[in-house]
Amino acid sequence: MATEHILELTGLSKSFGGNRVITALDLAISRGGVTSLVGPNGAGKTTLFDLVTGFLTPDAGRVRLLGRDITGKPPHLVARAGIVRTFQSLRLFSSLTVLENVLLAADSEAGMRSSSERHESARVAMERAGVAGLADVRAADLSFAEQKFVSLARAIAKPAGLMLLDEPASGLDGPSLRRFHAIVRALVDEGRTVLLIEHNLDIVRQISDRVAFLNNGRLLAHGTPDEIFAMEELAALYFGDDAAT
Ligand SMILES: Nc1ncnc2c1ncn2[C@@H]1O[C@H](COP(=O)(O)OP(=O)(O)OP(=O)(O)O)[C@@H](O)[C@H]1O
Ligand SMILES: [Mg+2]
From atom 2 of ligand 1, which residue's Cα is the shortest distance away? Predict the structure, then answer.
C-alpha cells in the first residue's frame, strides 16, 4: 500500500462515559508541510493528539504512521516510531536549566543515542528555537514566551518526522509569533511534518499548507486555507453569532 500519507486516521472514535468526544474521524495527513487543526474549545483537538500519541486508546478506528498500524501503542513506542508532541500545559522541569530540559527530551525514547549525539541534538534544537542564549537559565526564571520556545526546542530535539504541537503559539505577542512562524517553516524545510493546534486564525492562514476543521469531535472539512476560510459555516461555528461581521 502506498504511504504518501505520514499519518492516516480511520474511523477513530472516543467517548468519556456517555460523552462522545471523537466520532468516526477519518483524516489523512500528507508528508511535509504544516496542517493546522482548528475548532472551538472542547471540539476534541487535544483528545485527537492523545489518541494519536497513545496517551488515550481509541474505542474504535485505526492510527497509521507511514502505513504502519500504531493503534493502541503506548506513548514511548509511538514516540520511538517517530511522533513527537508538545502539551498545552508546557510541562517543563522548573528547577532544571533550559539545557537540562532540552537534553532530557533529546534523551528519552530516542533509543541508542550517545551522550555526544544527545548534546548535539539539544544544541541544534536550542539554536533552531532561538533559546541557545538561555541554556543555563532555570526554567522557573523564564518568561512565558521563553517557556513556549523551550517547549518547542524540547520537541525539536527528538528525531521525529511528525510533530504534534498543541497551541504552541497561544499567548505569544507579534514579534514572538513571527519568530514562531519562521521556526515552524524551517522545520518543514528540513523535511518534518507539523500538525498544529492553533486558535488564532490569522496565524493559521499564514502558516498552514492545509487546515483540518474539527467540531464536536467530527471532521467538518480538510483543505487548503483558502478553501477552509471560504466556508461561512465554519466561521459561524468558530466565532458563534459574532461571525462574518
Ligand atoms: N480525560 C477526560 N475525561 C473526560 N472528558 C474529557 C477528557 N479529556 C477531554 N474530555 C472532554 O472531551 C472534550 C474535548 O476536549 P479536548 O481537550 O480534546 O478539546 P480541545 O478541542 O482540545 O479544546 P481546547 O481548544 O479548549 O483545548 C471536552 O468536552 C472535554 O471536557
Ligand atoms: Mg486542547
Answer: 16
Strand partners, 28: 8
- The pLDDT tens digits of the residues spanning 220-242 come to 999 999 999 998 877 787 766 55
44 lines ligand 1 (CB under 6 A): yes
C-alpha cell at 139: 526554567
| Average pLDDT rounded to a whole number, residues 151-177 | 95
d(Cα 140, Cα 78) in Å, to the nearest integer?
A: 29
| CA 1 to centroid of ligand 2, rounded, Å | 33
- Helical H segments across the chain, by residue range: 45-53, 75-81, 98-107, 115-128, 144-156, 174-189, 201-207, 225-229, 232-239
What pLDDT, on a 0 to 100 scale, did the predictor assign at position 3? 57
> From atom 26 of ligand 1, which residue's Cα is the shortest distance away?
41
Domain map of the chain by residue range? 33-54+74-242
Q: How confident is the model at residue 26 (pLDDT cuts 50, 70, 90)?
A: very high
Asked if 210 contacts 222 with a C-beta cutoff of 8 angstroms, the reply is yes
Residue 83: closest CA among 58, 50, 61, 107: 50
CATH 3.40.50.300 fits 33-54+74-242, yes or no: yes
